[in-house]
Design brief:
alpha+beta, globular, 4-stranded mixed sheet, 4 helices
C-alpha cells in the first residue's frame, strides 16, 4: 500500500461534514477525538478523513497548521490499520482537543491507539447488527 494521502482520500464535502457532526458517533483518546459515520462517498477508497484544530485552543494559525500537518502525517503512515479492517465505506474527522502541542512521537502513538479503538468499535457494532 502506498503511504499517500491524496485528494480522493481527504474529506472535503461540506454536506458530508455537516452530516458527520449531526449523525456521527465518536471515539476519543486524549488529545484526539474522531467523529465518524458509515456512509457512501464519492471516492474509491474505503474511507475519507479530515483533520481539525479549534481556533479557541490555538489562536495562531501557524500553530493550528502545524498540528494539522502532524496529524495528517500520523494518519497517512498508519492508514493501513483502517484500510485492512473496513468492509464498508466510512467518513471521519479527527479533531485535536488538547490545549498544548504534543511532540510528533507522542501524537503518532495516540493516533495508532485512536485508529485501533475505532476499528474495534466498528467491528463490535457490526457483530451486534449481525446477531439477532
Amino acid at each position: 500500500m502506498k503511504h499517500t494521502l491524496g485528494k480522493e482520500e481527504r474529506l472535503k464535502s461540506k454536506k458530508l461534514i455537516e452530516r458527520l457532526y449531526i449523525e456521527g458517533n465518536s471515539v476519543k483518546t486524549f488529545p484526539l477525538r474522531m467523529v465518524y459515520i458509515q456512509t457512501e462517498h464519492t471516492s474509491d477508497f474505503p474511507c475519507q478523513a479530515g483533520v481539525s484544530v479549534p481556533k479557541r485552543n490555538f489562536k495562531l494559525a501557524v500553530d493550528r497548521n502545524r498540528i494539522k500537518r502532524l496529524m495528517r502525517e500520523c494518519y497517512r503512515l498508519q492508514k493501513e490499520i483502517v484500510y485492512n479492517n473496513l468492509d464498508k465505506p466510512y467518513v471521519f474527522m479527527i479533531s485535536y482537543i488538547g490545549r498544548e502541542e504534543m511532540k510528533y512521537e507522542d501524537l503518532y502513538l495516540k493516533m495508532e491507539k485512536l485508529l485501533t479503538i475505532f476499528i474495534n468499535k466498528v467491528k463490535n457494532t457490526e457483530d451486534e447488527n449481525i446477531q439477532p
